[in-house]
Amino acid sequence: MALLSEAYLLVGYEPLIGLVAEACLQEHGAEVAWAQTGSRRYTALEEHPSSFHFLISDVNLGVGTTGLDVAHFARLNKSDLSVIYMSDQEPEALLPFAVRGATFVTKTATEHKLVHAVVASLSNLATLSTAAATRSCSS
């Protein structure tokens, strides 16, 4: 059954984590583009800004840019993009730098936790969309 039928951009630099996350998402019906290198992280978002419904990004991307930076850049082009950060850091330390409405999962998350985070983000997105529609209708 295809639970996750949207398109996902997976951003990270740790091959093992990326391969496992990609396989998990594809197993559940997701289309996954994996951007492992620095330039590909932004190129995929610039060339196809509306193609992705989700950004799943490692926070620590090695030298240079962070997953937090990539998410902020992605939201400039698609404000309703769902974002899931993967990190071994505590979410509380990252919240001030994260995009609004982002979900956090640990890098050691099980397949169940990753899928649950995606489903929760879908729910959150639906709630935000409904609230925005209600505000625009009442104006």
UniProtKB/TrEMBL annotation:
One GO process term, biological-process aspect: phosphorelay signal transduction system
Highest taxon of the lineage: Bacteria
Keywords: DNA-binding, Phosphoprotein
Modified-residue entries (4-aspartylphosphate), positions: 58
UniProt xrefs under SUPFAM superfamilies: CheY-like
Domain Response regulatory positions: 7-122
GO function term, MF aspect, one: DNA binding
Protein name: DNA-binding response OmpR family regulator
